Amino acid sequence: MTEPEHPSAPETREVPRLTAILLAAAALVWTAGMLLSARIKITGWADAEMEVTSTAYALPGTVSAAIVAGAAVALLVLTLVNGRRTLGATARFAVGTGSGLLTGVLCALPIFTINTEGTIYAAVGGTLAAAATIGGALAAFRIPPVIAAAGWATLGVFLIGSLLNTKQIQDPLLDLLGNDSTEAAAHANQYFSYGQSALSGVAAGLIAFAVLRRARRRAGADLRWPFYLIAGAGAGLLSVIAEVLTRTAGAQVVTLAGKVSELERSVQQILSTNRLNSALIVLFLGAFTAMVAVGRTLSPAPDEDEDEDLPVTS
């Protein structure tokens, strides 16, 4: 008889197919909604300047969604392929990156086809394709449960942001923060942004922790603590990458929007700074929350000599 193979480390095991399918479906639905909303807002203006500013406003959100979609689709493809054969590191990277690139091309089409002769929409399409490709490359790392946990956490952050920024919720909160004058409104919006980021970071850490604990029960072994930290920080890390892409690959869009007026240039700079600060808050709070959650599940090792040190009572 041959000796059974040693079980693989829990962090390297593929996620269940159903998990990968649900994550990919949720990410694609969210991304499709973001792209459709962006296209409607951009094409709803007859004025060219308003089209440019609308494109600049829509770019960061669609880039963030494209990264998650690329990662989720790549994770699904890798899960299905590994069900038939085990891929090496190079093949895994090729499959993940290729899946992300294909997803990125599909993400770019709704924006690029607005005006195929305009370079601004080509720049947006290229940025979306690059974002999804990066997401696919990240999914190629042999830590599928961590990728899935970060993906679900990021979708949770998206959902919280969408809910908090509805008028029914945002307006009462801003009034509560003292939104009663021009100067006070600026402070209220800043406090609201920080509060939203803090809530999103805590939620990201808890969601990542919950997903990895579920993976632990399936694998029968727990992941090492650094993987909880990585998964908790994943949502913030993806947001940082999205902001870097917006400032580099999408720089033409932001620059054109800034040329509309001095006010618009200032607004774009403020929004860019706020997005980066928010992403960093989500990153650090997500990692911290996941680590605290893991720490609360750890029990101290029993002291074998404890009973011997206790005095004997009659």
TrEMBL record:
Membrane-spanning intervals of the chain: 20-38, 58-81, 93-114, 120-139, 146-164, 191-213, 225-245, 276-294
Protein name: Uncharacterized protein
Membrane keyword on record: yes
Species, as recorded: Actinoplanes octamycinicus
This protein's UniProt keywords: Membrane, Transmembrane, Transmembrane helix
